[in-house]
Amino acid sequence: MTESAGGRRDAEAVSQFVESFAAQLVEAGMQRMPARVFAALLSCDDGALTSAELGEQLQVSPAAVSGAVRYLAQQHMVSREREPGSRRERYRVHSNQWYEALTNREAVLKRWEGALRDGVHSLGADTPAGRRMAETLAFFEFVDGEIAAMMERWRVHREKTFGQG
After folding, report:
1. Among 52, 93, 116, 143, which is most exposed with the fewest C-beta within 10 angstroms?
2. Which fold has domain 3-94?
3. What gap in Å lies between CA 160 and CA 164, rounded to an integer?
4. pTM for this entry
């Protein structure tokens, strides 16, 4: 059983939560194994587990954990850290992982905006395809600005609600 501040946790209840939340993430488009690893990390008190601990909890191979962690790290949803005095790595989810994941999308949006601008130029702004491309560009510019403003409001709200951290 996993320890918690209030005593002992029901391992079966934790496992059910992990699988249930992972299923929701899969339904939203995340790959199954990264969703399970993310949910397992999110549900542990420390927010960090080794590959062996994840494999044991999820009943999966080290290779499955490795691939899932690689994907989650690329998405800025987990980070890797060395265990002090060991060569083993721990994988950590941070309390602000959603903030980080969304704000790191800014680079992707900027690249899409650049490609769309090139598309408008190449297709001609007066053509039906060029106008459609220009509208798509305007949408991404709008979303980019809204995400930035929303993330700033979240930062302020988070500080008020949870303190700095």
Report:
1. 52
2. Arc Repressor Mutant, subunit A (1.10.10)
3. 8
4. 0.71
